[in-house]
Specification:
The structure is a single chain. The chain is mostly beta strands. 0% of the residues lie in helices and 40% in strands. It is built from no helices and 7 strands. Strands 5-1-2-6-7 form a 5-stranded mixed beta sheet, with no helix packed on it. Strands 3-4 form a two-stranded antiparallel sheet. A hairpin with a 5-residue loop joins β1 and β2.
Length: 95
């Protein structure tokens, strides 16, 4: 399962589209750097507390991504991957 989100960096206000691939763990911590200013952005899925730091969540975001913003693939079992968004091309297909 994938979750699509859009984050806005707290430091430089860059918009970052993010596809998060879910693993088989109950609590899943994620971290990546803003591609413009390198601000650390961290959050945890499965945690009861709201722990997003370094960015704000764009609530009115609607998938699919348009390709206008920076794009990052996140998955606990793969490295962080910054790339151009291609629908359906998840980290499982990256060589």
């Amino acid at each position: 399962m994938n979750i699509c989100k859009c984050f806005k960096c707290d430091t430089c206000e860059t918009l970052i589209d993010c596809r998060i691939g879910m693993s088989n763990r109950d609590i899943q911590p994620f971290q990546f750097a803003c591609p413009e200013c390198e601000e650390r952005i961290t959050f945890t899925i499965g945690s009861e507390k709201d722990d997003l730091t370094g960015a704000s969540d764009i609530i009115d975001f609607e998938a699919p991504f348009t390709g206008e913003n920076h794009f990052v693939e996140l998955h606990l079992d793969f490295p962080v991957y910054f790339c151009k968004y291609t629908q359906g091309m998840t980290t499982f297909f990256v060589q």
